[in-house]
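Escalation from tier 1.

The customer reports that the assembly of two entities below gives different structure tokens on two consecutive runs. Tier 1 could not reproduce it. I'm attaching the input and our single run for tier 2 to review.
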Amino acid sequence: MVEREATIGLETHVQLKTRTKLFCGCAYAFGAPPNTLVCPVCAGLPGALPVLNRAAFETAVRAALALRCEIPPETKFDRKNYFYPDLPKGYQISQFDAPLSRNGSLALADGTVVRIRRAHLEEDAGKAIHDRGERTLVDFNRCGVPLLEIVTEPDLHAAADAVAYLVLLRRTMRYAGISECDMEKGSLRCDVNVSLAPRGDPPGTRVEVKNLNSFRMIGRAIEHEIARQGEVLDRGGRVEQETRLWRDGQGATAPMRSKEEAHDYRYFPEPDLPPFHAPARWVEELRASLPELPGERRARFERAYGLPSETAETLTAERGLADYFEALAQACGDPKAAANWTAGEVSRELNERGIAIEAFPLPAPNLARLLALVPARVSVGAARTIFRELVGSPGADPAALAASMGLEQVSDPAAIEAACREAIAGAPKAVEEFRAGKGKALDSLMGKVMGATKGRANPGLVRETLRRLLGSPT
Amino acid sequence: MDEREAIAAVAGLARIDLGPDERARISAELGGILRHFESIRNLPTEGIPPLVHATAGRDVFRPDDPLPPLPLEALLGNAPERSGEFFAVPKVVEG
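Tier 1 run:
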């Protein structure tokens, strides 16, 4: 059987974080009552004229720069003509042959470079609801909301890589303050193109898949589509060039009913908008305003702090979390401990409370004061207990809390020896096993001492004392 | 695609239902327009940058400041049919 390779391209729409729409002064809020955020411009009333939102243009160019795109000195808008009830004007203002950016790239953690063909501005359509009664219902609120369409070159070959690209794209957009990229609220949407061909051959017939509402669905849909096309080719059939919809309940794609002419958009230059310019100096100012982006930051965390790549990946998922880690590392002077605590206890607390790091009550410097007590004055386990208390009263002194909670580590040799002797007396079997050379038996004795001291005994000292009492060299 | 097919295709895209008389008339009119463009196409344009826009204006922006939307009743007042707060249109089946 021939070995085949899949080729995947992605078209992603991210909704820009502006106060108003792309061409009019309407605000937009997801979930607002229907048809309450609409004006003559976005409703397409006769005589109304679009005027470009400066912030949307600026945000789009910043996003393109975050994706390492070239910004041509001049750009223009075009009309994409089609009829659908969610498009009141009968055309969408988009960009056809002079997009505001081209030729970018996004480098994934494993070194894969995904080339960005172009990123352009366009307005969103409204929302058509089909499942309520005899009529289709239309809400124009979303009409005219600014979107950046980001198109990759077909550089991806596996579902997992496509998802990795989207995860990094989402992070990059969030770091740079371009978009919330919340798929549940529609501020990030993605269509995929999948084709299959014998390895080494040019890519096969492209099938576009739509209706993908989560990263999980995107991964599953790509895998399904690769398998489906493989079966068609195995049977000696031909893959149709078509658009298919992902049916998540069935775990399969199905052809979308559409006429061929639906793709004849008759683009022409938008006569109601002049051309727009991106002066080189302005572009450089925007480039300089970008923060360190997640891909770069992950690489720096590995290099500068010696963190494992998985930990660096976790810590750079959100800009705020990465900031917290760096503040903590600086305050406590121990990047490894700071990484473990940020990725572990802090993240767990955020998940449990359902909050973002920005809303986390405990400032990094005060957590650092707790970490400074480990392991000399409190054990790691006790520190976790104190941490939960500290989150509730973030101004408290960690050392005072440790004392008041009775969690200060016991390092008094006499007290520890007493506890060790008790443990040895109570577990003759473990003692026998240890003396017979079974080193693991020491763990069970350790456990008994820690249990008797409620986890407060200094573990190093306990181990040392047990070995001494059992007559084994430390 | 011959001229008649082209007119039928564009009429279809524009959702315009043309009768036989109208097709004949439009065919003649469009033919005239296309011939006119043919004569323009013959003008020497070498070295002249393409014109993107008919006006000399450029970079016309609007500040990102919210303006009040239309009241719901004013907006839906233009609708041939409504259903509650929505515009209502003939059923469109997706997929």
